[in-house]
Automatic annotation (TrEMBL), chains A, B, C, D:
Enzyme class: hydrolase
Protein name as it appears in the record: Formyltetrahydrofolate deformylase
Domain ACT residues, every copy: 11-91
NCBIfam families listed in its UniProt record: PRK06027.1, PurU
Any Pfam family: ACT
Hydrolase among keywords: yes
Free-text function comment from the UniProt entry: Catalyzes the hydrolysis of 10-formyltetrahydrofolate (formyl-FH4) to formate and tetrahydrofolate (FH4).
Enzyme Commission code(s) on record: 3.5.1.10
An individual GO BP term: 'de novo' IMP biosynthetic process
Keywords: Hydrolase, One-carbon metabolism, Purine biosynthesis
Hydrolase among keywords: yes
Domain of life, per lineage: Bacteria
GO molecular function, one term: formyltetrahydrofolate deformylase activity
Designated gene of the protein: purU
Amino acid sequence: MAPRSTKDTAILLIDCPDRKGLVAAIGEFLYRHNANILHADQHQDPERNVFLMRVEWDLAGFDIELADFPTHFGPLAERYGMRWKLERSDRPHRLALFVSKYDHCLADLLYRHQSGELACEIALVVANHPDASRWADFHGVPFHHVPVEATGKDAAEQKQLDLLAANGVDLVILARYMQVLSPRFVAAYPQRIINVHHSFLPAFSGAKPYHRAYERGVKLIGATSHYVTDELDEGPIIEQAVVRVSHRDTLDDLLEKGRDMEKAVLSRAVRWHIDHRILVYGRKTVVFD
Amino acid sequence: MAPRSTKDTAILLIDCPDRKGLVAAIGEFLYRHNANILHADQHQDPERNVFLMRVEWDLAGFDIELADFPTHFGPLAERYGMRWKLERSDRPHRLALFVSKYDHCLADLLYRHQSGELACEIALVVANHPDASRWADFHGVPFHHVPVEATGKDAAEQKQLDLLAANGVDLVILARYMQVLSPRFVAAYPQRIINVHHSFLPAFSGAKPYHRAYERGVKLIGATSHYVTDELDEGPIIEQAVVRVSHRDTLDDLLEKGRDMEKAVLSRAVRWHIDHRILVYGRKTVVFD
Amino acid sequence: MAPRSTKDTAILLIDCPDRKGLVAAIGEFLYRHNANILHADQHQDPERNVFLMRVEWDLAGFDIELADFPTHFGPLAERYGMRWKLERSDRPHRLALFVSKYDHCLADLLYRHQSGELACEIALVVANHPDASRWADFHGVPFHHVPVEATGKDAAEQKQLDLLAANGVDLVILARYMQVLSPRFVAAYPQRIINVHHSFLPAFSGAKPYHRAYERGVKLIGATSHYVTDELDEGPIIEQAVVRVSHRDTLDDLLEKGRDMEKAVLSRAVRWHIDHRILVYGRKTVVFD
Amino acid sequence: MAPRSTKDTAILLIDCPDRKGLVAAIGEFLYRHNANILHADQHQDPERNVFLMRVEWDLAGFDIELADFPTHFGPLAERYGMRWKLERSDRPHRLALFVSKYDHCLADLLYRHQSGELACEIALVVANHPDASRWADFHGVPFHHVPVEATGKDAAEQKQLDLLAANGVDLVILARYMQVLSPRFVAAYPQRIINVHHSFLPAFSGAKPYHRAYERGVKLIGATSHYVTDELDEGPIIEQAVVRVSHRDTLDDLLEKGRDMEKAVLSRAVRWHIDHRILVYGRKTVVFD
């Protein structure tokens, strides 16, 4: 994985039809404006004729004010039909961590944030159980208990959305949050809600995946992190991992082994998203590592 | 994994309700008859109250003729309600390898057999394409081309069953054999037909799993070896493996990476079966390694 | 992995020359005293003619007071030349966690203890840096700051040994503790000090393993948990893990990836030790899983 | 992994000091000559200020004759101080496979070549034991038995070098070839001799690695493919893999499990080399996947 620069950098993410001259045009644009490129990665999908690129450069010496970047880059983007985004390392993502009762992913993400692995701000923890508050308190992160009752789901979601807006959140992490979000909620944060599902998707989508894995007698169990869409467990997959199990493992052992995988795949997804390494196209992700 | 003895050994496989005194009774029986135990492994499933055991001993000094074993062991087995099987290392399994067009699993199994990894006899290769004959010829294994036409499937299966019977086959390996076996065929070899499916079951059961994995954008692809039952891809799983893929992998890359996994999970399943390490209970397997 | 029983159980660990009748004798002894065996596992090493066994039974109904066990089992043990240990699930290990500046293994072990994964008591945290106190405080574990100066190492060790004795500690975990223990200290806790080394031993033993792995250009980095002996990084290995790295990984990335492995191999070693699953023989361990 | 094009392509490999404008200059050069870029990958090592690039383009439409490429590209290369190589997909590598008694890697490479995984020509098999001839014969590859006696090593190497020259070989694969090559031989094929070592280097370099791994009681064993240099087992590492072992594995089991890893790491190294994906810098490799 490329290092996270300690410098102020800009990251340009591009998605467009593949065409001759793209690399030259982008390279020339950046060179002309005195960009010192630190990392560049690209992917071409010949089947769909798609070109995807991530390029990161040092802002020292770059001769365009980032506020004016659209003006300068716009004509080039238009010529090649690009969808593009400019991200800045000095404007880190602001995250909300949603959690229910299981706190292993929450504790793991908070630890990684504290240790400097995750270059983001954790704006708040939102939970439908009160227990997680001790972790939020320990790490000095505001905690909001928003109970979700069967009859008051809309009201609870509205309260959550208000909290997100009030706190300038731009990335929602479902850290074993056991509620299904409404289409309205999902639509408010397109490709900005990351969930961890405790199975190797598409196997055992839906409820109680470890129980079903145990009953089926699989020899490996898995976990999957993905962007949330309106279809349950069907969003673009970001990361997956598996671990070996045997007849000696009880259902409790599966749950225990699974927790370590859930932490791994969720924390990697968060890291890749906040480092602007993920591009979604179709139902898939490209992760520039 | 326990070593395959070069001595003549007997292997006793037991499956019964768990009860006090089982280990003592079996141990005492073997000791009384002067068995030199080389390996013993057992598993207790407290949920279903099942006791499963595999014990292997050196036949040198054992004071019962194996032909008389049922007479001696029968009363004990009855007392504890055991299902049991006695296997002998000097009576190796006789295998039929079924294959279609893809020959990587066939070539792999034949190589492992030649190199001494697989302590069995390969009685014949049965194929619905003629191409595999070169591998059978190279390894000196009889080859039978049995074309399977849409309209003549019953006749083809009968021909296959006749070949198996004529050759004393007791284990059928579907080494990427692209035909679904009829219930009649399956019933003739219960828990003695091993298939390799080119996905991480239960994900992508059925046709074209790599294509579907590619379209879904999974980050790991898998392969599964399992006993064949009447339900397609639903038999007890013996072994599974996965390999990491990324956006850089084309569909062809998935197929190529998949081949290595298919060889791995199928050859392990064959080895464990012929070494009498697998016990099936419910829909699951116990593999005594 | 076998489930940790919620019942009160006894665990017998045996190590002796392999001989006919061992399994029968042990099984008969337990049956005669009405033991309900929950798990039994054994290993025979034909090369060294060694027999190793772990057997766990439910104490309900067992007709020997555990205080009297040596009297009853002694004659049998003597007949077969057994080294043996009896452990009890109701007398959990008491641990001391030693830590320096890096706190990821400490935080991980404390979390796993709190979540019920580790069936032990954590008696105290001993650190030669003050920073770790926040984690001990959060989890309500006594914290002792014992600075280790170059000139006062003996005094510091004596203070540590006094703390261990005063707190009834029987297992010492070096959770990235950056000091080498003296032979006197090691001798006081034979096979009861577990260390994590941040390389795939025997590669990169000694100082700065990640730096050396980075310079050598390896494609996998590893971590190892082992019992501490007088020879640095040479004690019996309990667990190892590796993770893939590439040219895209900086030295910082190696350290970050390494932390996850260190947590994994150390926490597994701790769990296996406190569940009495590890037998040391020669320079090796047998882990009954 | 990027797909191997069925088109005629050119691959440019570049290694130079990192500098602003490099990407723009190379992109502009290729665009000006109407190259349709299929894949591009690059790596920047900020520590050593090194820029490494691999770019592959479709030759259809490219307006420079490849014979004239140096004339056109030379000035640009000089301006940036590039070391560079141009490879052509229509001029595949010609390989010699060196083998002793163990034939698993040989059989594996020949199979992969036949199945289309390896886009190269296998010019000959050279062996210091006669047994491997059956595999060469089966695949229709010329076989040369060159015995290596303790007293006649120089003569044997001269004979091997003559064979390589006569057959236009540009890549030598040591497929478990059990002889150490002389510095003279190594110097004749710099970064063009690939070896597989049966351990996880740098652990257990030298002789009998599985025996030493077995004695040390490691929990994972490995294999490593690397370029051969004058220092035994010290050349730049291309690929590594490990597999889990336990106390149940005998030394024979280690050898058996090891064979599968040896095949995996060697065949991947061969594939990456012949697809021009490997750049060596310092003691390390960059593998553009």
